Amino acid sequence: MVFPTADRILFFIKTHGPVSTATLARKLDLTTEAARQQVQKLVAAGLVEGRQQPAAGAGRPRQDWVLTEAGNRRFPDTHAQLTTQLIDSIRQLFGEEGLDRLIAKREAEARAAYAAACDGKSLEERLRQLAQVRSNEGYMARVERDGADWLLVEDHCPICAAAQACQGFCRSELQLFQEIAGKDTQVAREQHLLAGGGRCVYRIHKV
Length: 207
What we know:
Helix 2 (21-27) packs across helix 3 (32-44) and helix 5 runs parallel beside helix 8. It is built from 8 helices and 6 strands. It has a 4-stranded antiparallel beta sheet with strand order 3-4-6-5, with helices on one face. It has a two-stranded antiparallel sheet with strand order 1-2. The longest helix is centred in the middle third of the chain and has 38 residues, at 80-117. It has 2 domains: 5-72, Arc Repressor Mutant, subunit A, CATH 1.10.10; 80-206, Muramoyl-pentapeptide Carboxypeptidase, domain 2 (2-Layer Sandwich), CATH 3.30.1380. Helix content is 52%, strand content 18%. By secondary structure, it is of the alpha+beta class. It has helices at residues 5-16, 21-27, 32-44, 69-72, 80-117, 123-136, 160-165, 168-181, and strands spanning 48-53, 62-67, 141-146, 149-154, 185-191, 200-206. The mean pLDDT is 88.
């Protein structure tokens, strides 16, 4: 399947941003001028915006590109409006305790599913299995090595509206990742979509 250039740029910024025009041109096999023109169209459409990055030396600051809120909405957020309405209704009818019970039930179901899918003997195996499960759920997840540590990177959140309405979903996921990684590891969230990060990034460190 061939995707339009604009869609390829949006996807690349989503998964690698912030990125420069030169990087987009190089990675997507475009001329710099073609990449610049496509980016300007996306800026005009309100899907992409510039972000100034400090210069490495005495030169001018570099402008990189990130997705706007509208740009991020081009990627699916599962039944966002309905989910938010349901969370608000649960709060009104059953209070925060009722919402906590709902999150605990979801966590228990996810724990059983993840434990069955992530049965690798090594930490790397379990993390790669976890990334595959999360990708299947729409999180666009991958695992990267960073020195002695591992990074679980999620470029998208398909339940972003629910997470914005209730931070308990994010706390629950962090706890699940810690359990999958094991007692001899420490899992910490280093970037958070809801805090303005371009993605969620979790560092897994052996202790």
